[in-house]
Design brief:
Keywords: Coiled coil, Membrane, Transmembrane, Transmembrane helix. Helices cover about 35% and strands about 30% of the residues. By secondary structure, it is of the alpha+beta class.
């Protein structure tokens, strides 16, 4: 059986460039012609010529090649040997391994950092709780001591008028201690609860809502039902920049503000650390960075009996910018 080849422009450029002709018919070989190549002398014939006249008469044999020898630049064509290389597979596997190792290392770093933060918070809470208990115990002992001294003075006054002067001095002494106790009680107003309370949409719950970004200077209204120490709130930034956050009272008087000049892309914490009295307020901001807000919120009011978040001036279904409010209650 004769091997035939169809001339192709990209595979057989030398045939076309040399203007090679069929040696019998003298026809110029062109793209699309079906040819046969004598296996011995490498002469190229049109297939019809080979079958009809040259088979067995050319070089005394009828074997043909399955390719056309390349005469260009005097070099013989060699059949390419296709080998399968696994180099790319190995490179891809190596890159995937490096990326996975980097991601795992980063996750482990974040996990350790989170555990350290939790341990620090628990330790601080325990320390504050112990300090509060010690102060309360000290105040209780002082009150008991003063009550005992007062009772002794009253008994002595009733039993003998001769000791009136002495009893009066003791009474004055007791009054001084009572005044000291009053000062301690007033100072106790700065004692905070050991529990840190959280209100508002939690940062990790933002993805449960439809969100958008913007720089609108919207107001979020809230009321405080008892004195608190407002610690912080979180924001979600798209990009980097700065932000000024403000809290105003119902008469538009500035209560406190916090400035952060290094807002990073993603989660950021605004540390207010300010005592806020009972009353009505609103929170707003200025800045050059887009912040995340919720556009399908229908859960107002958000309340825990200490703080009640009423809504915004941007719309009844919007929750604007400030997430996960943290605060402590002022004791006494």
């Amino acid at each position: 059986m004769s091997n035939s080849i169809i001339i192709n422009r990209s595979k057989h450029p030398s045939i076309l460039a040399d203007h090679r002709m069929d040696p019998v018919t003298k026809k110029l070989l062109k793209v699309g012609d079906e040819v046969c190549v004598c296996a011995k002398c490498k002469t190229v014939y049109l297939k019809s010529v080979w079958i009809n006249s040259q088979r067995k008469s050319c070089c005394g044999q009828n074997v043909t090649l399955s390719y056309i020898p390349n005469k260009e630049y005097g070099k013989s064509e060699s059949i390419p040997i296709i080998t399968k290389s696994y180099q790319n597979h190995f490179i891809l596997f190596l890159l995937a391994t490096i990326v996975f190792a980097a991601l795992f290392g980063y996750w482990h770093y974040l996990y350790e950092k989170t555990q350290d933060r939790y341990s620090s918070i628990y330790s601080k809470n325990a320390k504050l709780n112990n300090e509060l208990n010690i102060k309360i115990l000290s105040l209780t002992n002082d009150v008991s001591l003063l009550e005992k001294e007062k009772l002794e003075l009253e008994q002595k006054l009733n039993s003998s008028s001769r000791k009136l002067s002495s009893s009066s001095q003791r009474l004055n002494s007791s009054s001084q201690k009572l005044e000291q106790l009053s000062v301690k009680v007033e100072n106790a107003n700065d004692v905070l609860s050991s529990t840190i309370f959280i209100l508002g949409v939690k940062y990790e719950e933002i993805e449960n809502y439809s969100i958008d970004y913007g720089k609108y200077q919207a107001k979020i209204y809230f009321t405080v039902n008892q004195p608190i120490y407002f610690k912080s709130a979180k924001i979600e930034a798209k990009g980097e920049g700065y932000i000024n956050a403000f809290i105003y009272d119902a008469n538009n008087n500035l209560v406190c503000q916090v400035y952060k000049n290094s807002v990073k892309d993603g989660s950021n914490t605004l540390n207010f650390n300010y005592s806020i009295a009972e009353g009505s307020y609103y929170m707003t901001h200025q800045g050059n960075v887009d912040l995340t807000f919720i556009s399908d919120f229908d859960e107002y009011p958000i309340s825990d009996n200490v703080i009640s978040i009423k809504g915004t001036d941007f719309g009844d279904t919007h929750y604007m910018y400030f997430y996960q409010w943290e605060y402590q209650i002022k004791l006494l």
